[in-house]
Each structure stands twice: as C-alpha cells, then as structure tokens.
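Budget justification note: compute hours in this period were largely spent on complex prediction jobs such as the one shown. Inputs:
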Amino acid sequence: MLFMNDVSKVYRTDLIETHALRKFSLEVKEGEFVAVTGPSGSGKTTFLNIAGLLETFDTGTYRLDGEDVSRLSDDSRSRIRNRKIGFIFQSFNLIPDLDVFDNVDVPLRYRGMSAPERKRRIMDALELVGLASRVKHVPAQLSGGQQQRVAIARALAGSPRILLADEPTGNLDSLMARQVVDLLEDINRRGTTIVMVTHDPELARRAHRNVHVMDGQITDLQPFAARSLVRSEAIAI
Amino acid sequence: MHLRPILSAMLRNKTGAILVGLQIAITLAVVANAVFIIVERAQRIARPSGIDSENLFFVQSYGYGPNYDQLATVHHDLDLIRSLPGVVAASVTTGVPLSNSGAAQNYSASLDPDVEDFMVNTYFVDEQGVAAFGVKLSAGRPFTEAEVQYSGEQTSEFVPSVIITKAFGKRLFGDEPALGRTIYDALGQPATIVGVIDHMLGAWIDSDETIGDVVFLPRISWGPDVRYVVRTEPGRRDDLMMEVERKLSEADLTRAISWVRPHSYYTERSYRAHTRMIALLSVIAILMVAITALGIVGLASFHVNLRRKQIGTRRAVGARRVDILRYFMLENWLLTTGGAALGTILAFAFGQWLSTAYSLPRLEPQYVVIGVVVLWIIGQVAVYVPARRAAAIPPAIATRTV
Amino acid sequence: MFSYHLRLALKSLRRNPVIGGLMIGAIALGVGLCVTTLTVFRLMSANPIAPRNDVLYAVTLDSWGGDRPRYEDRPELPPPELTYRDAMALLESDIPTRQVAMHKSGFVLDPVHTDGAKPFLVEARMTTNDFFAMFDVPFLYGGAWNDATDAEAQMVVVLSKATNDKVFGGVNSVGRTIELGSRFGIREFTVIGVLDEWLPTPKFYDLNNGAFDRPEDVFAPLSLTPALLLGTHGNVNCWKDEPIDSFEDFAESECVWMQYWVELSTPEQVEAYRAFIDNYAREQKRLGRFERPLNNHLRKPDEWLDVNAVVQDDNRVLVGLSFMFLAVCLLNMIGLLLAKFLGAAPIVGLRRALGASRSAIFQQHLVEVGVIGLAGGAIGIGVAALGLLGVRRLYNNYDALTHLDLTMGFVALSIAVCSGILAGLYPTWRICRTAPAAQLKTQ
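Corresponding output:
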C-alpha cells in the first residue's frame, strides 16, 4: 500500500539546514494499522506530510497504492490526496463556519460527485461515527470528541485507501480519546489501512505495528506483543 | 520605544505597508490639490462686488410694433418704478455685472496710436446709475440728467462725459488722478471723466486681470429692448420685483416684459460652475479621507487579530498596555509619514500637471503641509480604536494553545 | 462547483461583515463617483449629430485683422463665426450638397388669438432652409420651407414643439398664422412646420451662444434678416474701429455673428470646397480685407465640439480625481482582501490537504472577489444615481445632463467587476500559493 525507500528531506533557511528525514524507508501493507512514534522533532510529521503528499521530498522513492508518486504535478497530487488519502489532525481542523454536513462535504466537492452521491456518502460516514443527528451543528456546538469524529467522517466519506492520522487524540481527554481510538480500530477492521503518528503509548498499543522514528530515521520495529509487555511493566511500576 | 523593531516588522509585511502608504500618498496628493482649488474658487465667489448686490434686481422690456417709442417707454417705466415706496434708485442699464455677458469697448488715454488702448466693460446708465448700482464714488459726481443721451440708431457717437472705476483709471493713467482727464473711444472721439468709482466688478467673472475695469456711459440704448437696474431698501426686493413686473405689464405699451430677476440669479448662474466644483471636490476629498481612514482601521484591526498571540506574549513578558498602544500608534505614524513623503512629491507633480494642462493656478506648498498634518491626525485617530483593542488583549492568551 | 464557490463566498462575507461591508462600500463609492463624473463628462462631450459626422463641416474663415489674433491665448484659431457679408458670399457656391448660413435673433410673439395672454419674447433662428435636412431635425407637422421661400423672403415660420404647445395647444398649426413683432413692427407669419421634440446636447450648430441652451423657439428664413432689418441676439465680436449706425453698416462691418455649415458628401467635394474658401479668402486679401495669414477651416462636428472646448476643464479634472479616488478605494480593497485571505490561509491549507487543486482555490477566491465587485457595482449604480441627483441640483438647467442610462449602468457594473477582480488578483494569487501542509498543525 505504502512503500518508501531511502526518502530524504532537508529544510533549508538562510542560516541552517535541517535534515528532517534521512534515508527513511518504510512499507505499510494493505489493511495494516501502523503507529509511528518518536520524540518531538524526530521527523514524524514530516514523514506524515510526505506520505500524505502534502510536501515533496528531495531523494528516494515513494509508491502509494502501487503508483510512483515521487514526481507528480501539484494537480495530480491534489487528486490523489482527494481520492486515496484521508487525513485526521490533532486539532481536528474543521472549518468553523461550515456545519457538520458541509465539513464532511469538503473533499467530496473537489471530486466532482453528483449531489445525491455526496449526500449518501456523507450520511453513511456520519452514521458510522454516530453523529448523523448532528448534521446541522457547527463545530463550536460540538465537544472535542465529537469534532474529531466529524473529522474522521470527513476522512472516510471519500472511501480512501489509506487513513493518515496525526496525534488524533492529542487534544482530547481520555474518555473521548478512547472513543476515537475504538472508532479507528473499527474502521481498520473494515479494511482501511491506517498510519497514525502519536506519542501516546496507549494509543500506539492498539496498532498492529509500531514504528519508532528518531532523527529522521526508523530506529526500531517492535512487534505488537513486545510493546504490550513494555506497557504492562509500565503499569506495574 | 525603538523604531527598529517596528520598521523590521513592517518590512516583513511589505505589501500591507506599501498598500497603506500608497493610499495615504494618493489621498494627500488629491486632497491637497482639491482643497487648494476649493479655497481659490471660494475666494473668487466671496470677493466684494462693489455693488449693492442683495438689494438689486433687473428688468428687461422688449418693445415691438410700429408705435413703439423707446424713449417714452423708458421714461414711463422709470417714473413708475422710482415712484414706488421702497425703491432707492433705478436706472437704465445695458448689462448685469457678474452675469458673464456684457458689452466691451476699446478706450485709450491718448489719440497717439502708440499709446495702448484697453478693452473695457461698459454700461449705459442714466443720472441714477451710480445710486441704482449702489457703487461708491471716490471722486467726482454722478451723471446729471442733462448729460444722458438718446440718439436712436446713431450709436457710434461718443458721450461727453464718463464715470470709470479706480482700477481702470490706474490702467489708463497710472498713479495720476483720473478725475477730469479725457479718454478717447476707438473712433478717436473724446469724453471727460466726471466721476471715479471706488470699486466695482464687471461682467466676466473669470477675467481676473480686468474684471475691476468698468466704464459708465450716460446713454439710453436704441432698443427695442431696454433693461433697468432697481435698488431697493433692504428686505423689499422680492415684493418690489412682483409689484414692478405687474405694474409694467399692465401699462398700455407695445412691449413684453421678458423677465424680472434679482441680481443673485446672475451671480448664482455665473458662479455655478465654481460652486459645483467646490461641492464635488469637497465630496471627493471628504470621501477619500474617510475611505483611507477606514482602510487604516480595517487593516490595523486585522493585524491586531493576526498578532493576538504575539501581543499576548509581549504582555506576558512585561509590556504595559501603553506600550502596546504606542507600538501600533507609532507604526501608523511611520506609515503615514512614509506615505506622506511620497504623497508630497505626487501632490506637486499633480498640481504641476493641473496648472499646465488645465491652466489652473499652481499649488501652494502650505496646502501640502496642512494635508500632511491632517493625515497624521486622522491616521492616529483611525488606528487608536484597533490599537486600544490590542492593548486590551490579556497576557493569559500567550499560554492558551488554541 | 460555481454554486459551491458562490455559497462559500457569501459565507465568508457574512463571517466578516465589517470587512466585507468596507470592501463593498469602498468599491460602491469609488464606482459611484466615477460613474457620476463620467456621466456628466460623457453628456457634455456627446456628439449629438454623430450619424452625420462624416459629411457635415463647420466653416470658419480668418477674417480677423489688426495686430492680434481672435483669441490671444489660442492664436491658431480663427473666429468661430463669419461676417454677414462673407456668409452671403459663401452662399453663392454650388459645391456643397447642402449649406446653411444662420444667426440667432428674437421676436415678441403677440398671442392675439388667445384672450388675456401677454406678449412674450421668443428666441428665433434665422436660417436658410437646408438647416432642417442637414441636421436631421424631426418634424411633427408640416416641413421646411423651400429655396423659393428663401429667395423671396416669405413670412413663414417653423415652430418648436414647445412653442406650438404654448400657442396652439399642441394641435397641427400648419397653415395658421402667428404675430411676430420687433423693431420693424408686427407681422403675420404663416406656420409651415412644427418640430418634434429636438434637444441636441450640446447645441453643436451654435456653440458660441450658450452651448447647453435649448434650440430656438421659432425658425424663419434668413432672407428676412435684411428685409426686416433684424438684429442678432447672439454674441457680436468686432476687431475694426468703424461706426455702425444702421443695419447696412452692421451687414458690411467686420463684426462676426453668423454661423455657417456645409454638407460635403465626397472627398472631391471637400477638396473643391476647401479650394473655394481659400480662393475666396485670397480674393478678399486683394481687396484689403483678411489681414491675417490664410487660416480657413472645415471641421467635422466632433472636431468642432473639441476645438470649442465644450467640456470644461473642470469636468476633466473631476473625472481624473474620481478615478484617483477609485484607485484609493481599490488599494484599500487589496489591503483588506489580502489581510482577509491570508487570515483564512489555514483553512485554504486544509482544503488543499483534502484535495482541492490550486485552480479550485483560485476559482473559489475569484468568485468571492467577483461577488464583492458585483455587489459594489450594484450599490455603485445606486450611489451614482444619488450622485447624479445631487449633481442635478448643482446643474439645475441641464436636466439632460444628469440621467443615468443603461449604458452608464453597464459601465458602472463593468468598472466595478473589472476593478474588483483586478484588485482581487494579487490577494488571490498570494492565497493560491498556500502550501497544503501549512498551518495544519496549529490553529
């Protein structure tokens, strides 16, 4: 599904060069739920931005859903983001003056779907996240957890091949966070590949696989069971 | 407070600063020139006319038919008008001062062809002409009844005596007194100056050089039209206009009363182009300043909103409200000053262009100076509201994440 | 997609009503002011005889003498009018298809058939009969007189519609008579035609005697001028010191007071006529007249209007100033739009992340800018209508000058939308460059 090989990215200003990613390689299989962890400034977000075609990279190759997306035009990248990728952000990034329905509608609008088709997809997605009754609410009238579920509905409405989540529970209290994670697991079970950046160990535990990033490189591939063990120890202490 | 951080912040947001600066520059250029033109026109309208304008009205009678007798009609009409209570004086006249229409003749101080002759605005009046216009004689006397000529169609014959304005006397004789001197018409016929009018404006409002040059001739025109100037006691003009029109129309004479009009009818008509220009320029100038001020308010508000967090942080690290206020006021002052510097150049360039292309007078520098001061004040007032809002931002905002 | 962008634009304007109102108001004021001054300018500089512009020519001869040109500030111009004797001499030519010599005069009209009505003064145009055909003058009843009438100086008259309304209550008065009086006495004139509404603005055929006055009340044959010893009601300008004590003196004098126009249909005619007037001028020089260098002109109506500076400089200055005002309004709008668009950059970044292409973002903002321009233009038309209402008070005798027609409404909208979009291009271009990843992390 997602295949990166030796991807490098350098940010340059007049004064400094920052190597955000160095020969970063990662493969995510179809249907996988992968958590990317690592400290601040390790390159997690850069990885996610490149994976989501929000940013370009300097060297290396990146294939998404079998297609080489390394050197695509801005328009083609927009189209792939629109059709194949769903995004979930830490701060939800809902548009404040659009209601729930219109927020979920945003990516579908850029896809040129017919109105009935859009409506069906929006209502299905909202049904899935349990907010079908709130279509006319604006984000300010919803709790944080509800807002994040709207954002998830927005990410799902276009039936993406892969869901990219950036600290999806970072702005939520633990109860709401758990609901959101339950939802993500449910979505993953229905067949959508998920790549999630987080530094919340509980969240990472729920993934099939954890990838640890440090200084722009993957340092550690830990199987599910091992992470689980680590967590038990942490609780024991 | 240092200017450097403000300047560098402005440099980082070059576009915004340039846009406001340009607005201020154009506003200064337009407003300075507009106000200059307004003042110049207003002064022209307000200059003293020398005649008793607000108590004057004019009448035109137009004779026709085989039995029409110009002289008899004039005597009948003037006897009637002068007999009305409230009428101070009445005279025939060939024209209306400041009406932009009138007669002009060439006169010279000498028969010598090398001595320059001057085109001057003339009025045929009778013995009450001076009193009827309400002009002051600084020397000499009004015409006598005996001096007033009526020669039918033989209008090329000159009159024995004339009254001229002091301004025209100066043009003819320099600083020598004009009273008693002789002037010559274009055919070389002489006339003696028997009176000097202290000040009176002639017919054409925009001939600045020669508008004060006027000559009265004691004569009744050939007709068939004749005009009268009537001077009333204060407050009686409008009543008397109606009474005169009615009484003259009732007279059993073969003529039509074409109109009876107050002098203000003519001054308003003549100055209309100027009052119009004043009104339209005022509207443009006021709107321009208002739009620029609103633009300053709008942009400053936006920048305050964008910089909320930054302002909160400044407050958190110890900036007082007044420091924040001062920051925005100073930023605006710098912008206005920059815009005004460019605007000064624009204003003079624009003024130069107006004076060459449209023969308007040249822009005087004090208008630009006043314009800069006004823009400084308006800028400061305009930015005060958003700046105060900025100063009211609580320091706690710095620690909030969203 | 367009309807979606339209909805977003309206939402966005509602979100910042003050800024939106400021932008729309600025455009409306700028456009309103420009359209107001443009309307006045356009009507003042209109060519009311445009359809015949290519065949009509105003004739001027430099008959001036002495050591000064007619206009000291514009020495290249001959006097705008002809002497009576020159006009009569030009009428002898058979080169023009049509030609007209004329002047302004006046009579007292004695309404003897209406009880109790007082005699009143009417403005008259004494003219040769080609006047009506040359200047496309519309008739309501009857028509123009013919060459024989001109030659025989018959007492006929064409009435303006207003005069016919006043004297005959608007009925067909052809064949009826009116009493016109002046110095010569009172004569009976037969009505031969009545004009329909005719208001050439400016009054191109006689710009020297009130360029924005209405046409005269009655029209009668020029040959009556010498027959009845009529005077002129227009301006008279003379350069020569000569005694003028009778009509004959006046007719033979060097005073100019006659307007002269010719219709020349072919270039050959134009050349031949030019040669004719130049030869005439040379001949007069031999007779001791026309003291200045040869300076005769045939000017088409548009050129004639231009040369006579019908549009006052003040009007040009006002048009210039109002466009500078519009420029300030647009700068204002660019600043506000830029601030507004960049303020919404995080949302644009989000839309980009969710798959909006650059062109979709461009379209979205262009629609918003277009809505502002359209709204500004629509309100601007209202502002212009108000402005013209105000201007009408200032120009109270020029009603024709101050109505807003369809063309100016269209001009207003075009200026508004074009300037709105022009002002919007830079902010739109800036916002399109928002990177999709920008500002997603923090809000």
